[in-house]
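In this supplementary section we document a worked example of the pipeline. Step one takes a protein sequence of length 211 as its only input; no multiple sequence alignment statistics are reported here. Step two produces a three-dimensional model, which step three serialises into structure tokens for compact storage. The input and output of this example are shown verbatim.
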Amino acid sequence: MWNGALRSPMWGSSPPDHLVAGAGRPHPPTMIAALLIALASVPGAPPLPCVPAASDKGALTSSALDEHRALRAALGAPMPDAPAMVMLHGKGGHLVTDEYSIILARHADASWHGTAVGRSQIWVKDAPFEPMKRAEWTLDEAAGKTLDRAIARRCPPTPALPRDATPPGPPPRDVIPEKIDVVRRGKSTVSFYAPTGDATIAALIRPPQQH
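The serialised model returned by step three reads:
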């Protein structure tokens, strides 16, 4: 089970916020799902989570499926195979490169089972990889149904910032680019960056935070 998030020795006792559902907030995934459902019935409230639709110009971004497979093969972790899967891949960091694969797979009983693996490497020539703590969990019924509805919905992608509005220099410290892939058998894979669309699917699929 999840034991303090994807934690490596160099992270100390606190898990990195970008990996943990509810990090920086007191709400675990169950409460997130319930809150989203409740808000949907309030006039003027934001809509339920959704998958951003590709525009006429093509796909939102390239898939990270190959990166998931390569990372899990390197770590000796199986790659799930289910009719419906939602995946999050992240790689980056400041002074330390973190790479992780979070996958939720929908089983025949309609439950969603998650696995998370990752590794870290300090920015020193030939430094060894440090594996992160592996995680396995199952979404509760409310969160699972919210995710079912989310991947069935399509919403406009978040407009890209104009080139001249992008701040110069490197990305902010500890910010890691994350891609989400929604894979459903018989349908085209939808791939997008985590903040695209309504930016809430990532919160649903991260490993739960332990207290």
